[in-house]
Design a protein that fits this description.
By secondary structure, the protein is α/β, with parallel strands linked by helices. The chain is built from 8 helices and 11 strands.
Length: 224
């Protein structure tokens, strides 16, 4: 999943983002309502996590403006305001779920997965298949034929992106932007290293290779 965390408490935002990245998701951050609106309106996210008390544009105003713009991305509201009336206001403003502070990350993760699953029922794929290779975005399970494949979080994100664009050339720039978020020196060979590891896990021992290098262009997952 690709998430946007709109939270002005830097420590809290960093904690949430790091925790989601550790389980294999992409997490962008915004420190105020205006930045959150700009990112949510410009990029495709699976779920938005929005703090209610934000500088420049409060969380409920941000949500209302996104809904008015026709952006239907599921939104989970985080707030220290946990009374029934506060939760009702948040949901009526356009939020899909409301989690009072303090909370556990395991509950936050579960609620975000539920929101993503609901959206999946409206057309967003949650399972990708290429030949006999299958990736389940929600359970984080990967298998080929009868064999389960264990991937590290970054390998999972890499395979997920490749399978989402199966049959298409995926360039290094696309991978930098969507899998690594530009968080490293693009001159390093980190992509090549991860592609090599991924290839050894999904292709080694199988007669038909699925992960192909397209010289001078990038990479492609295809079954023929």
């Amino acid at each position: 999943m690709r998430l946007l965390i709109v939270e002005d408490d830097r420590d809290a935002a960093d904690y949430i983002a790091r925790a989601f990245r550790e389980v294999g998701h992409i997490a962008d951050q915004a420190a105020d309502g205006e930045e959150g609106f700009a990112l949510a309106a410009d990029r495709a996210y699976d779920v938005l996590i929005v703090d209610r008390m934000l500088p420049k544009k409060d969380g409920l105003s941000l949500i209302g403006e996104l809904r008015a713009k026709g952006i239907e991305t599921p939104i989970l509201i985080l707030s220290a305001l946990g009374q029934v009336d506060d939760r009702v206001k948040g949901l009526r403003a356009g939020g899909d779920d409301y989690l009072p502070k303090p909370y556990s990350f395991s509950e936050l993760l579960a609620r975000v997965e539920v929101l993503a699953r609901r959206r999946g029922g409206c057309g967003e794929e949650t399972v990708y298949r290429v030949g006999d290779l299958e990736l389940d975005r929600l359970s984080h399970r990967v298998s080929r034929g009868k064999d389960e494949i264990v991937l590290q979080p970054r390998e999972f994100r890499l395979l997920e992106y490749l399978m989402k664009h199966a049959g298409q050339v995926v360039t290094r720039t696309m991978l930098l932007e969507n899998v690594w978020d530009y968080h490293f020196d693009p001159q390093t060979n980190v992509i090549d290293v991860h592609i090599s590891r991924l290839r050894s896990k999904i292709d080694k021992g199988f007669a038909q290779p699925l992960l192909h290098t397209i010289r001078g262009a990038g990479y492609m997952i295809r079954d023929k």
